[in-house]
Write a structure and sequence with these properties.
The protein is 77% helix and 0% strand. The chain is elongated and about 95 Å long. The two termini are 60 Å apart. The N terminus is likely disordered.
Length: 345
């Protein structure tokens, strides 16, 4: 499972835990006003937890901290009820005298065991009925398989830290701040771990279909940047400044490490210009990259295509000789003759 301890050390979560730890410590000593502050902080913590799970499942390494609107006592009732339901159930099972100890602990373990799966459904769907459905919970547990067991192991470790935080809160006010911060972090860390588990299994079930996948988003933004650069190059060509356009294209290629992906994308984009012969000017460098990468057939086809695009297309004689020799070795003699003709005298 791709739940590394580094994922649990998310800087946003750590800062939020420290700030909320201070707020909770102030609330514990502020009387009636403190009760109100504690309620608002708890509401924000619950809402932020599900947001953390959703962001991590979507591949976000960095996400915004909770805003003031998360303390609004109204709105997102499904998320609030889900948190309140599990919190109240755990408190009831832990404190009620009407449940014998032989039954109390199995019930507590059962509730704690289903919470990560239920929280995953709640965060992804915002549907309370689905989050409490045994079928939905069972689907998450089944699809995560052994990784769900690992997630429960992380939950046990976090529960131990939660117990430590309670002890710190009783020692002194200063240690109480650290204890409250640690308690908040353990709650958010469970959401972090659950989100990371979903992320690792995103291809296994349909729970993440509605989530904006970070990889897709980043790739879309990356291609958008390429398009803006290519548009600038095209504007230079239309303004009668082809040399400036070629410099812009070279900068684009260099910014991506001259990889074959950006060469192919740029070549295809230049083919859509009013005058596609400009694409042939990229052909010599692109063909050399293909050849050096071992894609010799693709290099041959590209040179032949560029020659058809522009009668001015030419490649160095040494490179043309290499290509021609390879073309003859695979029985493409006519193409070999064309390649010799492409080479400058």
């Amino acid at each position: 499972m791709a739940v590394r301890f580094s994922a649990l050390a998310n800087p946003t979560v750590i800062v939020v835990a420290l700030v909320y730890g201070v707020l909770l410590r102030i609330a514990s000593a502020a009387g009636l006003f403190g009760i109100l502050l504690m309620v608002l902080v708890t509401l924000s913590l619950w809402r932020f937890g599900y947001s953390v799970l959703r962001h991590v499942a979507a591949g976000w390494g960095h996400f915004p901290p909770p805003g003031i609107e998360t303390m609004n006592p109204f709105g997102e009732f499904a998320v609030i009820f889900h948190s309140l339901f599990f919190s109240s159930l755990l408190l009831l099972l832990a404190t009620t005298p009407f449940v014998d100890d032989w039954l109390r602990w199995p019930l507590l373990v059962a509730v704690l065991a289903v919470f990560p799966a239920s929280a995953a459904v709640m965060a992804m769907t915002r549907n309370l009925g689905a989050a409490l459905s045994p079928m939905s919970i069972g689907t998450v547990v089944r699809e995560l398989g052994p990784d769900y067991t690992k997630l429960l192991g992380i939950s046990v470790a976090l529960a131990a830290l939660m117990a430590l935080s309670g002890w710190l809160a009783q020692v002194s006010w200063v240690l109480g701040v650290l204890g409250d911060g640690l308690a908040v972090w353990t709650v958010l860390a469970l959401f972090l771990a659950t989100g990371a588990a979903l992320r690792a299994h995103r291809a296994d079930f349909d729970l993440l279909e509605g989530v904006d996948d970070a990889d897709v988003r980043n790739e879309r933004e990356r291609r958008g940047g390429w398009q803006k650069t290519l548009d600038r190059a095209y504007a230079s060509v239309r303004s009668g400044l082809p040399a400036q356009a070629y410099r812009t294209i070279k900068e684009l290629l260099a910014s991506e490490g001259d990889n074959l992906e950006v060469y192919q994308w740029t070549f295809n984009g230049m083919l859509e210009w009013d005058d596609p012969t400009h694409a042939a000017l990229l052909g010599e460098r692109f063909a050399a990259k293909l050849w050096d990468a071992g894609r010799k057939v693709d290099a041959l086809e590209l040179v032949q295509r560029c020659r058809k695009l522009s009668p001015r297309f030419a490649i160095p004689a040494e490179r043309a000789a290499e290509l021609a020799a390879y073309a003859r070795s695979i029985g493409r003699h006519r193409l070999a003759d064309d390649l010799v003709a492409v080479a400058p005298p």
